[in-house]
Design a protein that fits this description.
324 residues; mainly alpha; two-stranded antiparallel sheet; 2 strands; 76% helix
Length: 324
C-alpha cells in the first residue's frame, strides 16, 4: 500500500494552498473563537475528505477555484458535525487530543459547531456556489437522520444487516459521496457524471465504515488487544450482527444480555469478541468491505485514466488497509 504522502502527490500543491485558504477562512475577530479555531486547525486529521474532492475534480475535468470552495465547505460542515457529535456522545477525546467540549464545555462547543456551519453557508453564498451547497446540505441532513435512526434502534438492539447498511450509508458514506460529487460539480461535469461520482463515494464510504467497525475486534497497535469500544457503547456493527445471526438462540440471548447489562466488564467484552471471531463475523465483514471496494473500482473504471484517477483508487485502498 502506498503512503498517504505518495498518494497525495498529484494534488500536493493544491492541498498546501487549500490548507492556507482554510486557515484564513477559520479566523475570527472574537479572541475566544479565534483561539478555538486555531486549536481545531492545528489538530486536523489526515485530510482524506479534501483529497477526495480534489482527486474527483481532477478525474472529472480539472481543479478550479470552485474545487477549493467545495473542499472548504466539506471541511467546515464536517468539522461542525464532529464538534456536535462529541457533545452528543459526551466524548472527551478527538484523534487523541482533548475535544472542544472537554476544554471549553458543552455550551461553547455547540456554539462553535453552529459557527462552523454558518461559515460554510456564508462561503458558499459569497461564491454563489449553490449547487455545491445543495450537495453538502443533503449530506448533513442524511448524517443527522442516520444518527437518529441508530439511536432509535440501539435502544432495543434490533439492528439487522439492512438497517445497519442504511445507518452507515447515511452517517458515514453520505459525506464521502458528497466529497466526490462536489469535486465533479466543481469541474463542471454533467449530472450523469456527478451522480456516478456520488455513487462511487458512497461505496467507498461504506467500505470505510466497515473497516472502522473491524478495528473494534482486531488487535490495537499500541495495546495488542481489541478495543471493544463499540461493545462498551452497545453499538451493533456488522461483525456482531453477522455473528448473532449465525449463533443459536441461547447464545444470542447471552451475548445481547452482556451488551445491554455487562458492557463495562473487560472479561465479558473479551467474551463477546471471541464469540464474533468464532462465528465468522470478522471474515464476513472483511468480505463485504472488499465487495464495496471492488464495486467502487467498477463504478469509476470508465473514467479517463490519469494521475488523479490512479491516486483516487490508491486512496480507496488506503481507507480499507489503514491501521488507524
Amino acid at each position: 500500500m502506498l503512503s498517504l504522502s505518495a498518494i497525495r502527490k498529484p494534488v500536493e500543491k493544491e492541498m498546501i494552498l487549500f490548507e492556507k485558504k482554510f486557515r484564513d477562512a477559520m479566523r475570527s475577530k472574537v479572541p475566544l473563537l479565534d483561539r478555538i479555531m486555531h486549536y481545531i486547525v492545528k489538530r486536523k486529521g489526515k485530510q482524506l475528505r479534501p483529497m477526495f474532492v480534489f482527486f474527483s475534480a481532477g478525474v472529472c475535468g480539472g481543479i478550479s477555484e470552485s474545487t477549493y470552495t467545495g473542499a472548504a465547505l466539506i471541511e467546515l460542515l464536517h468539522t461542525a458535525t464532529l464538534v456536535h457529535d462529541d457533545v452528543v456522545d459526551d466524548s472527551t477525546l478527538r484523534r487523541g487530543f482533548l475535544s472542544i467540549n472537554a476544554l471549553w464545555k458543552n455550551k461553547i462547543a455547540v456554539l462553535v459547531g453552529d459557527y462552523l456551519l454558518s461559515k460554510g453557508l456564508l462561503i458558499s453564498v459569497a461564491q454563489k456556489e449553490y449547487a455545491l451547497l445543495e450537495i453538502v446540505s443533503n449530506a448533513v441532513r442524511e448524517m443527522s437522520e442516520g444518527e437518529l435512526l441508530q439511536i432509535e434502534k440501539a435502544r432495543k438492539l434490533d439492528i439487522d444487516e439492512e438497517i445497519y447498511f442504511e445507518i452507515i450509508r447515511q452517517k458515514t458514506a453520505s459525506l464521502i459521496a458528497s466529497c466526490c460529487a462536489v469535486g465533479a460539480a466543481s469541474a463542471k461535469a454533467d449530472d450523469e457524471i456527478i451522480k456516478k461520482m456520488q455513487r462511487f463515494g458512497e461505496q467507498v464510504g461504506i467500505a470505510f465504515q466497515i473497516k472502522d467497525d473491524l478495528f473494534d475486534y482486531e488487535k490495537n497497535l499500541n495495546t495488542g488487544k481489541p478495543s471493544g469500544i463499540d461493545i462498551r457503547d452497545s453499538k451493533m456493527t456488522l461483525p456482531l450482527i453477522h455473528a448473532l445471526h449465525a449463533a443459536s438462540g441461547q447464545e444470542k440471548k447471552k451475548i445481547i444480555r452482556i451488551i445491554k447489562n455487562e458492557n463495562t466488564d473487560d472479561q465479558k467484552i473479551a467474551e463477546v469478541i471471541s464469540f464474533v471471531h468464532l462465528h465468522g463475523g470478522i471474515e464476513y465483514a472483511r468480505k463485504r468491505m472488499n465487495d464495496f471496494q471492488n464495486e467502487s473500482f467498477i463504478t469509476i473504471c470508465t473514467m479517463p485514466d490519469s494521475a488523479y484517477k490512479k491516486s483516487l483508487t490508491e486512496l480507496v485502498r488506503f481507507t480499507t488497509e489503514r491501521e488507524s
